[in-house]
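This section describes the prediction task in plain terms. A model, or a person checking by hand, is given the sequence of a single protein chain and must write out its three-dimensional structure as a string of C-alpha cells. No templates, partner chains or ligands are provided. The sample shown here is typical of the held-out split.
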Amino acid sequence: MNSALHVAELRVAELKKLLAYHNHLYYTLDSPEISDVSYDALLRELEALEKQYPGLQTADSPTQRVGGLPLESFGKVSHSPPMLSLANAFNKEELGEFNQRVCAFLGETSVEYVCEPKMDGLAISVIYQHGQLTRGSTRGNGEVGEDITHNIRTLQSLPPTLQGAHNDEILELRGEVFIQKADFQRLNELRAQRAEPLFANPRNAAAGSLRQLDARVTAERPLSVFLYEVAKGKHFDSHLQKLEWMENHGLPVNPLRCCAKGLEEVQAFYQQLLQKRTTLPYEMDGLVVKVNDSAFRERLGVASKNPRWAIAYKFPSEEVETFVEDIQVGVGRTGVLTPFAILRPVVVGGACISRATLHNEDELKRKDIRIHDWVFVRRAGDVIPEIVAPIQSRRNGGERSFSFPSQCPSCQAAVYRVPNQAVIRCTGLSCPAQLSAKLRHFASRRAMDIEGLGKERCEQLVESGRIQRLVDLYHLDLSQWMTLPLMGEKSSQKLLAAIAHSKTCSLARFLFALGIHQVGEVTAKTLAATFKDMETLMQASFEQLLSIHDIGPEVAREIVEHFANPNNRQLVNDFLAAGIAFSMESPAPSSQLSGKRVVLTGSLSTLSREQAKAEIEKRGGKVTETVSAKTDWVVAGEDAGSKLQKAKALGLQILDEQEFKRLLEN
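The expected answer:
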C-alpha cells in the first residue's frame, strides 16, 4: 500500500469514528459538542477522500445515508418472534385488573414493572449482524412486514455499526420511528412553500416517510427513532438491563423511563408523564407498562396476539384551548344543514385542527357555543375534532350567538325542521351543495368506486355547470375534463377510464350509490338479493318491502317515496341508458356468520374495517354499529374502546383478531 493511500485510510477511519460520535451526541443525546458548520466540514472531508479513493467507501459510511436508487417494490420479511401488539388500559381500574392477572398467574403478591412513554410512530425491526446494520423492516401484520432496509439506513440516530466488539452475534432490535413536533412543523412549512400537500400529523408523516420506495425521499425527512426491545440474539435477566445495554452500545433509547415497584409507582409515573405531555418534544399517547423480570415474562407468555406481561396505559383524549373565529353551516347530500366551527388552527393529539363539527342546532344551543368564544377542543376517540365546552371565564362581551339560517346557504331555498328530529333540511331541488355531496357519495370507494373524483373535483364539476344531474358524469368527454383546473390530458384520461370501469358494478353498489335516505350498504345488499333488478324494486309496494327481514316501516316508506318521484325513476333509466350494467354476485358461502349480528371495534392488523365488514357480509352476517343484547359477536382489535366495555358488561362473546380470522376460515 502506498503511503498516500495509507494516510487516507487512517483519516477515513478517524473521520467515520468522529462523525459517528457526533451523530450520537446530536441525534440520540441531544447534546452536540460542535456546530453544524464544523460537522459539515468533517463530512465534506470524508466525501472528498472517498471520492479520491473509492475503495475506502463502505456501506456504513456516514456519506451513504442519502439513499440509493428507487426500488420497484418492498420485499417481505417474516418476524420470528412475531411483533405483538399491546392490550390497552384506559383507566386506573383496568390497569389494576392487568396487575391482578399478572400477580395471580405468577403467584406473586407484587411485581416490578418498567414504564416507558408510548410513542406515536411506526414500529420497526432492525437486525445487526457482526455489529453491522444489515436489515430493517416494518411491523406489517406482526408476522410479516416489509423490507425497508434502504430507508432504515438513512436514519441518522441509528448507528450503522454498533460500538464495541460483537463477534458473530445476530441481534434483532425493535423500536419506533417518529418525527419530533418541531421537525414536523418545519417539514409542513417547507411543504407549504413548495405547494405540496401538508401531512395531517407526525405519525402519518413518519409512516409515509419510512415507506418510500425512493430512499432519497426518506433521507430528506427529519425522522427519529427510539429502540425499546432486544428480540433476539442476547439474553438479559431484566428489561431494564436490555435498555441499559442498548444505551451503552450507542443505540437510541428513550431516557424517560421508570422502574416501578407496584401500581402506586406506575400511577405516579403516569401522572408525571401526563403533566409533561404537552411540553415533551414528541407525541405520545400513554405509557407502556412491562414486567421487568425476564423469567416472569417467559412464564406469562402470550394470549392470542397480546403479551400477558405488558399493557398500554392510555392517556385521556387531549383537550386544548382555541378561538372560534366563525360558525358556518354545511349542506349534505340529503339536504341536512350541519353547523361547524371555524377554529384558530391548533394542534390536538398530533393533528392540526381548524374546524370542528357542532352536530346540529340542539347541540349548539345545549353547549352554548358562540362566535368569538374561547373553547376546549379535543379529538373524540383521538379521531374526530369536537368542541367540549366554551371557556366561560374568558368571555368579554364580544361573543355573538349563532342563529340558524332560514334559507339554504348554498341555493337560498327555504329550510325546514323535520318533526320530532334535530334535523334541519334544505327544500331546494337544484341545490349545488347537495348535488356536489351526492356526486362525491356516488363516486366513493364503497359505492361506484371512481378513483380520483374527490371533494374538490366534484365541487368544480357542479360549480362549472358540467354536472347538473348525476348521470351527466357518464357523458363528459376528454376536452371537458381538460378545461378543469390542474387537469392535464393524462389525468383526464385516467379519470375517464375509472368512470368507464364503474359502469359494470353490482346492483347493491349502485343502490347504495343512489343515496336513498336510510339505505346504507347492508340494506342495499338486502334489496339487491331480494329483487334482483331495478325495475322490480322500483315497483315494490310498502307491504312487499316491509315483509323483508331487517327493513322496517321507516326505511320501507323512504324507498317507496323515492321511487314514486318520477325524476328519480327517470334518473335510474338514464343511468341504464348510459351503460350501467349489473354484474352477478356470488351467493354467500355457508358460514357460522350467516344471520349473525357482529360489531367491530378497534383496529385489526391484517384487515381494514371495510375489508372485515365485507368478509362478514360475504358470509351472510350483518355488521352493526351499536352493541346490544341482540349482538352475537364483538370483534375487538387494537385500541378497542367503550364498545368493548359494554360488550363485557352484557356478557357478550368477544373475539380477538386471531379468533375472528379462524371464524372466517371455517
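For orientation: The first strand starts at residue 76 and ends at 78.
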